[in-house]
Each structure stands twice: as structure tokens, then as C-alpha cells.
Task: inverse folding
């Protein structure tokens, strides 16, 4: 069906997105498909004092869009009955740990049979099998996507993605599915927990030991990869006051010598991936650090005592004030805005870092303070982020409550199609492009505008139009359709075109549309038949809902309106 689209570029000849986004001159299509240059938002002077303004549908929508992937009408209806503080407290609460992924791949691919795992049973402790690992990795990615699409209204899934973007491993690079599962579950389990504890576990996690060569780091040939990223990307960062030295990297590498992957459990036999400290590989010399770390000396230890040097190293790094500042900046970039000016650093980052230190690096108090703050609900913070591909496509699926199959085989095939669609526009789940994560969250000065270029905006629009018109294309024989009538039936006043558009903008845009925009959309909804046509066909269908001709008439008007509605520049923002 996609072949019926003649020239997708025609869609954008008059679309605002080619001229502006965030209501400022932004984006001009270029042949090299480079992202646009950055522009700054207005200075925001509000701070971390608790927000006391109106708590309405728009405010609720803003909070939910930043905490979830897409927002359902039922979620707005529920959370607006709470106070702002109650809503945040409920969102920042742990979800139950999902059941582990299972062998859902055996019937999905011809002639594939896992000799160690029956169909429907979990593979998370199965021995490594090079012929099967690729299918298990696809199963793992599908499992993560399932958890997102079926998530409870909790920040938990998005926080896990935040950690995955910050503390990167790559599933395909490892090619050990059960190690990647253990790594991702570790991020989920620590989503709101203690960051220092998470770093301690990450340092000896089998997936990370493989990914950054820690398992090959020994006294005869110290490998500096993890020691460098521990400071540069995971804890200290690259800020103006980040003054650790090359010698600090070298000394940290020596501290970390001796941690190796347990090959038996991780590769050869059935069991949970694991690591252990192998004392003969450990450098037992004293490690002298620079003045940035107050000239700390970690005394060399032999035997099993050498493992304790790792805790000393991490304690030393976390005692440096830059670590708390860096983590708070990354949280802010991910959940609020890509740019941190002097006022934001002074009014938001520094106080948040103090909260983090006072809480001994528990993340939850920082999140509660940020999401309850005046700054978070400031008008300049709303609609200020370009949706990443997961927020764009998976968020649309959640918002429209696209029907989900319970069949394991069908789920895997559909999810793999979604994963491919997301990857095609720049975000491969499980495989950020580098150890630094996705460029949109760190690359100055472009940041989130990496998500939008001449290629990706066309593909985004094809995906959303496909879902509306003929269904998400999975294969020649399988398209997944959005239930448009079911979607609008959840609204309070679907028969009133103006109220319908207003409610739809709340869900799909998170901001109110102008009167002119609403008039334009209602004109499309009424077609050439004038005011009152939509109401007449809607109620006519409601009273005769088994009539297929009336159903098609209503669906066609919704399709005609939803396509240009989702081509509004605001639809790409949250």
C-alpha cells in the first residue's frame, strides 16, 4: 500500500514545519540532510519553588508527555483529579518488574529452532548459541518495546531509557542476549534508586565489561576505555570545571584491573551472566590521583582485598562536586530542555545537585523536586522538545490505543516492524550509535534537532499517515489499523467538531490550537457540506453503529482531518 504514495515531498509544500518549529525560524531543507542550527528559547527565571499555578488538562498533559511515551485520554482524566504533587508522586513510583522475555522467535522465522529453549519459555539463562543469539536479541528488543507500549502510567520506562542513553552498551555489538537483558534489567531496577550503587553495579556488569573491554583490563596491559568513560560520560562529564587529567584515567584503569566476565555462566552453560574479581590480574601498586581529586591515593591491595579499590575509586569520584552537577544537567537535558544557560545553572542545576548530594545520590528526590517545580511548568518549558522517534511513533500508538495482539508470534513480527521504523529515523532501541548515546541528548549546539531532517520528517509523516489511512504496514498481508472511531469515542464531546479538535490537540499536541487552526480543522472535518455535517454523520452513526456505510463515512472524514492535523509543526513537539 505504501507504493500508492506518489511524492511525499508534496505534503510539505505548504506545511509550517519547513519554515518554523517552536515558533522561531528554524529549519531549511538542505541537500546534505544536515540538522538545523540551534536557536535559544527565552530566558526562564523561575526556579525550584513548588508550582502553585492552575492544575488543568494542559498542565497535566505536559507532565504526562515528559514522563510517558504518549498520553491516553483516560490518563489525563485520572491525573487531573489529583493535585500536582500527588500526580508527580504517583508517576515517580516503581512499576512491577515485567516477566522476562521468552522464545517468541521459533515460529517467526522459517527453519529456526532453539535447541535449548522451548517456544514460550524464557531464554535469559540459556547457554550462548551463536546461531540463535540474533533472534534472542530481536526478542529482547521486542520485549522492551512491549513494556513501553503496555506501560502503566509511571516514569519507570522513560527513566530506564534515560539510563540506557547515559550508560550505554550496544546489544548487537555484544551479541550476548542474556547479558544485555541483565544489563537492561539492572537499569530498570535502579531507575529511581541510588546512582552510586548503580555505577558500582555497572562497573562489574558483564555486558559493560565486554562492551568497554574491562574484562581484558589487567596489570600487564591496562585498558583505559572504561576508566575514561566512567569519568567523561558517566560521572564527571566535560563541563568547564571538569579538570580530571589523563593520569587520572590511567590510575583509574589500574584500580579496575582484575574484574573479568565469568565465561562459564555468561557463555558456556546455563546460568545468569556474572563477573568476578581475579586477583592475579590486579595491579597492586598505589594509585596517585591529581589535585582535581584532592591528590587522593588509593593504596594498592593484593588478593581478594584488591576488589575493594573499586569502591574507593567510585567513592572518590562521587565525592567530587562535579558528579552531582553533571547528573543533574543530564536529567535536565533529557526531561526539560536541551540548553542550560547561566540562570538555569544557578537556579536549577546547582540546587538540584545539592539535593542529590544531601540524599547520598538517591535520584528520586531530585526527580520529585524537578517535576514539581515552577520551572518545569513554565510556559517556555512546554512544547520545547522535539519528540524522539520513540515518543513520536510509540507515543502515537499509545495515545490512539492501537489494538495489540496477544499472540507471541504476531507481537514479535509487529514489534520488529515498529523497531525498524524507529531505527529508520535515527533511534535504534538497544543500540545507541556510540558510547556517548544518541547525539540529540548531548551534541552541542544541535541537540534534539538531530531528529529532524529532510529524510526523517518524510518518513515520520509516512508512518503516521499509514497508521491513519491503511494501517501500519508490517507485511503484504498484515497492516495494523488504528481504531479511529474508538479513539474519538473516548472524548467528552466527539459530535461537536470544535470541542473534538480542542480535545484532540490536548492529546496529540499538548498545547491549545489557535482559533484559526481550529476553524481550519473543523472545515476539513465538515468537508464541502458546510457546518453541521460532521455532527449529523456522527450522531447518525452512533444511532446505527452496525451500519458499515455510515462507519466508513465517519472514518473517511476523520482520516481527512487527522492527516493534516498531524502535519502541524506542533505535532513534532512535546
Result:
Amino acid at each position: 500500500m505504501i507504493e500508492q504514495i506518489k511524492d511525499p515531498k508534496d505534503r510539505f509544500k505548504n506545511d509550517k514545519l519547513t519554515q518554523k518549529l517552536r515558533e522561531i525560524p528554524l529549519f531549511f531543507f538542505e541537500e546534505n540532510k544536515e540538522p538545523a542550527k540551534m536557536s535559544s528559547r527565552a530566558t526562564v527565571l523561575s526556579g525550584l519553588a513548588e508550582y502553585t499555578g492552575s492544575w488543568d488538562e494542559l498542565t497535566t498533559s505536559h507532565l504526562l508527555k515528559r514522563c510517558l511515551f504518549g498520553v491516553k485520554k483516560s490518563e489525563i482524566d485520572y491525573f487531573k483529579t489529583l493535585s500536582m504533587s500527588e500526580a508527580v508522586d504517583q508517576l515517580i513510583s516503581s512499576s512491577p518488574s515485567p516477566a522476562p522475555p521468552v522464545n517468541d522467535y521459533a515460529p517467526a522465522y522459517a527453519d529456526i529452532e532453539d535447541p535449548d529453549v522451548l517456544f514460550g519459555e524464557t531464554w535469559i539463562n540459556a547457554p550462548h548459541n551463536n546461531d540463535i543469539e540474533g533472534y534472542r536479541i530481536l526478542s529482547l528488543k521486542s520485549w522492551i518495546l512491549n513494556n513501553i507500549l503496555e506501560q502503566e502510567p509511571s516514569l519507570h520506562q522513560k527513566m530506564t531509557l534515560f539510563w540506557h542513553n547515559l550508560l550505554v552498551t550496544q546489544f548487537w555489538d555484544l551479541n550476548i542476549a542474556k547479558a544485555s537483558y541483565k544489563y537492561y534489567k539492572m537499569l530498570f531496577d535502579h531507575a529511581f534508586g541510588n546512582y552510586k550503587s548503580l555505577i558500582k553495579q555497572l562497573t562489574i556488569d558483564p555486558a559493560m565489561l565486554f562492551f568497554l573491554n574491562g574484562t581484558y583490563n589487567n596489570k600487564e596491559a591496562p585498558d583505559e576505555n572504561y576508566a575514561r568513560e566512567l569519568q567523561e560520560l558517566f560521572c564527571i562529564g566535560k563541563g568547564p570545571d571538569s579538570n580530571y587529567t589523563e593520569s587520572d584515567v590511567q590510575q583509574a584503569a589500574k584500580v579496575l584491573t582484575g574484574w573479568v566476565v565469568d565465561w562459564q555462566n555468561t557463555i558456556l552453560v546455563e546460568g545468569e551472566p556474572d563477573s568476578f574479581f581475579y586477583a592475579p590480574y590486579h595491579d597492586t601498586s598505589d594509585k596517585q590521583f591529581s589535585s582535581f581529586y584532592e591528590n587522593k591515593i588509593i593504596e594498592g591491595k593484593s588478593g581478594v582485598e584488591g576488589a575493594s579499590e573499586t569502591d574507593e575509586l567510585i567513592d572518590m569520584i562521587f565525592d567530587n562536586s562535579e558528579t552531582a552537577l553533571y547528573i543533574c544537567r543530564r536529567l535536565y537535558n533529557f526531561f526539560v530542555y536541551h540548553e542550560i544557560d547561566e540562570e538555569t545553572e544557578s537556579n536549577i542545576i546547582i540546587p538540584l545537585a545539592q539535593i542529590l548530594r544531601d540524599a547520598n545520590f538517591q535520584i528520586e528526590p531530585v526527580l520529585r523536586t524537578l517535576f514539581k517545580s515552577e520551572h518545569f511548568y513554565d510556559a517556555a518549558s512546554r512544547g520545547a522538545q522535539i519528540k524522539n522517534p520513540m515518543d513520536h511513533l510509540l507515543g502515537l500508538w499509545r495515545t490512539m490505543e492501537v489494538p495489540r495482539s496477544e499472540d507471541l508470534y504476531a507481537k514479535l513480527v509487529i514489534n520488529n516492524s515498529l523497531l525498524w521504523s524507529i531505527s529508520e529515523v535515527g533511534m535504534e532501541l538497544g543500540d545507541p550509535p556510540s558510547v556517548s548515546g544518541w547525539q540529540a541528548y548531548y551534541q552541542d549546539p544541535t541537540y534534539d534537532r538531530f531528529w529532524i531532517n529532510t529524510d526523517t520528517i518524510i518518513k515520520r509523516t509516512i508512518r503516521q499517515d499509514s497508521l491513519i489511512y491503511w494501517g501500519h504496514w508490517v507485511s503484504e498481508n498484515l497492516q495494523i489499523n488504528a481504531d479511529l472511531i474508538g479513539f474519538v469515542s473516548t472524548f467528552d464531546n466527539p459530535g461537536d467538531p470544535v470541542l473534538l479538535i480542542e480535545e484532540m490537540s490536548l492529546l496529540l499536541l499538548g498545547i491549545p490550537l489557535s482559533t484559526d487552526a481550529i476553524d481550519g480543522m473543523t472545515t476539513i472535518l465538515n468537508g464541502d457540506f458546510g457546518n453541521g455535517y460532521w455532527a449529523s454523520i456522527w450522531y447518525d452513526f452512533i444511532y446505527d453503529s452496525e451500519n458499515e456505510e455510515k462507519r466508513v463515512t465517519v472514518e473517511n472524514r476523520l482520516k481527512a482531518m487527522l492527516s493534516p492535523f498531524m502535519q502541524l509543526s506542533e505535532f513534532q513537539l512535546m
Notes: Residues 548-566 form the longest helix (19 residues). Strands lie at 20-21, 24-25, 259-261, 275-277, 287-288, 297-298, 472-475, 478-480.
